[in-house]
Amino acid sequence: MPRVELFPFAEYWWFYAAFVAMVCVLLALDLGVFHRKAHDVSIKEAGIWTAVWIGLAAAFNVGLYFWLQHRLPLVERLMAIPGFDPDAAARRTAIEFLAGYVMEKALSVDNIFVFVVVLNYFAIPAKYQHRVLFFGVLGALVFRAIFIAIGALLIQYYWVVMIFGAFLVFTGIKMMTAKDTEVEPEENALIRLFKRFIPVTNEMRGQSFFTVENGKRVATPMFIALLFLEMTDIVFAVDSVPAIFGITQEPMIVFTSNIFAILGLRNLYFLLRGAIDRFHLLKYGLGIVLIFVGLKMTVLGRFFEGGHFPIEWSLAFIVAVLAISTALSLIYPPPAGKHRSLPLPLGSDLFMHKKGDGQPPAEPRGRKDDQ
Question: Taking the model in full, what pTM does it have?
Answer without folding.
Answer: 0.78
